[in-house]
Amino acid sequence: MSAPPRVVIADDQALVRTGFAMILAADGIDVVAEAADGAQAVAAVRRERPDVVLMDIRMPEVDGLEATRRLLAAPAEAPPRIIILTTYDLDRYVYAALAAGASGFLLKDVSPEHLVAAVRLVRTGDALLAPSITRRLVERFTPREDGALHRDLSVLTPRELEVLQLLARGLSNAELAASLHLGETTVKTHVTRILSKLDLRDRAQAIVVAYETRLVTPGSP
């Protein structure tokens, strides 16, 4: 049995930190540190080396976006998975955080069950948010942002390009398999190869790349 996830919670509201910590601890998840701003979060992560960080976007001094950039830009053998916390489901800063390498986002009114499931999910290396939500987020903000994830898609095979295009349109692995008449294991292999070839952390970043390279365009069916 694997060890429980180790988590750092970064939020400028003490009640939010306490509430999340209690929920996670009740499910056997180890909260190793709390932080009230981005600078404290960076220091806590470097000290504790957690598996997952719950990162509020809007904090004083150093905000969650800058803290995410600092943590994921620094070389590390096993960088933490970062879940962005927001009170807005289409906050433009969330898009920038995804481009910086965050594994997804949660609304602060998330249910206890969803919070626990989210931490355990990203700990395994998967992206947190549904592709359809990511698509909506990226479609809204891609034209307004300077692309941070430009990649050369020529390294992908025609089949991998097809998988990436459908993935970016919001299809799950099961839906991809049905659409392409492939097994789910084969689809997962294609997705893994896409992430490896494009040097991406997870599906969330892959969707951002698909839009920023115009493989998929906002508003397209």
Automatic annotation (TrEMBL):
Gene3D superfamilies named among the record's database cross-references: 3.40.50.2300
HTH luxR-type domain boundaries: 149-214
InterPro entries: CheY-like_superfamily (IPR011006), NreC/VraR/RcsB-like_REC (IPR058245), Sig_transdc_resp-reg_receiver (IPR001789), Tscrpt_reg_LuxR_C (IPR000792), WalR-like (IPR039420)
Lineage: Bacteria, Bacillati, Actinomycetota, Actinomycetes, Streptosporangiales
GO BP terms in the entry: phosphorelay signal transduction system; regulation of DNA-templated transcription
UniProt keyword list: DNA-binding, Phosphoprotein, Transcription, Transcription regulation
Domain Response regulatory, chain residue ranges per copy: 6-123
Full protein name: Transcriptional regulatory protein DegU
One Pfam family it belongs to: Response_reg
Protein origin, superkingdom: Bacteria
GO molecular function: DNA binding
Cited PROSITE patterns: HTH_LUXR_2, RESPONSE_REGULATORY
Entry-annotated residues carrying 4-aspartylphosphate: 56
